[in-house]
Write a structure and sequence with these properties.
Blueprint (H helix, E strand, L loop, with lengths): L1 H5 L3 H16 L2 E6 L4 E2 L5 E2 L1 E4 L7 E6 L5 H19 L3 H5 L8 H21 L6 H18 L2
Parallel strand pairs: 1-5
Antiparallel strand pairs: 2-3, 4-5
């Protein structure tokens, strides 16, 4: 899948190289799975996730690619990379999360809203070949879904 994303545009190729280097320099692996969803905590399945590194293990961004359009894989990657940046930069919303029991409710919604805004900002900054109108619509839908499920 990384090959497909690399071939999509020079901007995407440069962005992916930048992400890989940044992750590698911070002990975080980037893994693509052939399945559509990936297991996060042994139970939960999701399209993608970021798990921060700790003393005994490196961190990971894992993306499910099965039966997904490359643009959707790219936007999932951007979203998870934003979570990585929140961790790396010790963002208040990220640091406020109780990692032992997971973040839920309004804190989670606020974190995801911020992440979606940051992802759109990265797309603009890197001039990535993504339909911003469609991404904004998808983002609003995702946040609306969280508002009904996370309360």
């Amino acid at each position: 899948m990384i090959r497909t994303l690399n071939n999509s545009s020079p901007e995407a190729k440069n962005f992916l190289k930048f992400i890989r280097d940044d992750l590698r320099n911070n002990r975080v692996a980037l893994k693509f799975s052939k399945s559509r969803d990936v297991r996060f905590d042994g139970i939960t399945t999701t399209a993608a996730y970021f798990q921060e590194p700790c003393l005994k293990r490196q961190g990971i961004i894992r993306i499910g690619t099965g039966n997904r359009k490359p643009v959707n894989v790219l936007t999932n990657l951007i979203h998870e990379y934003c979570h990585f940046l929140q961790w790396k930069n010790r963002d208040t919303l990220w640091m406020d999360a109780d990692t032992s029991s997971g973040i839920r409710g309004e804190k989670y919604i606020r974190l995801e809203e911020q992440t979606e805004r940051e992802a759109i900002s990265l797309i603009r900054q890197w001039h990535l070949p993504v339909n911003l109108s469609a991404i904004r619509k998808r983002s609003r839908s995702y946040i609306a879904h969280l508002r009904t499920t996370e309360k």
